[in-house]
Amino acid sequence: MAIAPNGDVFVTGGTSDGSVFPTTTGAYQTSDQWNATNTFASYIARLDANLGQLKSSTLFDLQAWSNTNLQDIALDASGNVYVAGSTDADGLPAGGFDVTGNGWSDALVA
Question: Hey, which of 36, 42, 84, 107 would disulfide with 72, CB 3.0 to 4.6 Å?
Answer without folding.
Answer: 84
